[in-house]
């Protein structure tokens, strides 16, 4: 037998060999590089990764070979010379003398790469958008590629994304792509005839501060205090515990607990102690306060004899957030984040009974949302020729499942998404940025005047590709239409977005005409993507004959009891898009009381007046959450909301 000393010595020798093996790491590259990726044309293409410290690195692409040496930390970067659009190519990276251990990436195209970022309206998927089924079936664009960056949040800047890989744009993968980015990419690819790559880095419900670096936020008094306060949250144990709470949170939201899906949905379940509620309505209007959790709804509905033995259609209108639908105890659907563009489903014939049937809905009430939007006409069961309404009296009960754990909403905190979902992408070569965000900052719209340009400056500086094009979407019309002129935080946020056009090489797509009053996620993402692409065609690709913007306020002058307004970007003329009289204008005098105004087009100008304001001083247009406005140019692009006053707004604290 071996002595103890011999065994120890042998173990140490094996451990030494193991440690030596660890010192010779294989060559690696971050996940932003992969098969089927698109690299940016007409720039020196950066490629980077890690290897053995001091090793000689060789990279080959399209017959071009470049070399460098890894630094003492094993980090390396090469830059290929400028390529024209084309491909496919193979990218091969290896240490000198170890070509058999290379990282080899296939199907690489050279074209234009755009980083698409923002909150839920940029994250909104093709399968959730208008005409989704047709769009998915016809998506066959091998020259469009997407990299979707997985949600992640970190306390310090990261060198790699947590997951994500490049996908070809086809019917298999397109359904989960950002709809705005896809429709943008499709038009750019067709108009410019070059491969287009989209790096999608998005997270719903997040403010601009989450996407901005700590250093930039510390440079402004507007954001400095929030960043410093966030420093107290940098305890890794708290961060880990919160991550566990988030996992538990979503497990409860997505998966019925305590077998409620079997018990509560059953036709013979005793719901005699449940409270009554009229549907449709939002959970916040149930009279149960600021509730967060799962709410169950049940309704007994009598179906006519003619429905028996048939497959039926049930339409649950416009639900918000996550929900599950049950019919006579059987699950009909489980919808996650409005994953279906329409909310109608088939009830199999074998579940349909003559007389009384039971419909149950499990609704998630999270982030002050949840419920079913009106109108009531969209709640029904139909056999195709007649229908039975599901609107009216329902029963509901909350707290049948465990309470949702409290989370710190770290994804909402300053810089944490920048650290995990933007920093790892730098300095991947790109053509520019497309951005759709602002809803989460509406309550502090006045600060957005500074915060948004800060993000643009921050990203451009870090990419070090000059003043990269930054194209963004102005917030759509949303919420209830007001009968009288009123103040609006969304109008002030739109104003902040318009003011950002003073930043060089920026462009804004106005969509004040295609929102939906009852849905913060309007479905017509095709037109949003098209309008962004129009801006790119004009601003970036220098297409001179392209009209990319609707009328933009230029100047005004008072003429007696009228105000005459001039615009830029009128095309060949101004008109009302519905053929009726112009709407959306309001005027005020020295008393600052606004009244709806009459407006008429005179040549390339608009004259505004009100019989109630004899000496008008200022005019506003489309200044509301959901304005009724119809001024467009010859291309049908809407006039950008504006005001001529600088009076203190409701978000200016």
TrEMBL record:
Signal peptide: none annotated. Keywords: Hydrolase. Residues 112-227, 429-533 form the Sialate O-acetylesterase domain. Transmembrane segments: none annotated. Pfam families: SASA. This is Sialate O-acetylesterase. The lineage of its organism: Bacteria, Pseudomonadati, Bacteroidota, Cytophagia, Cytophagales.
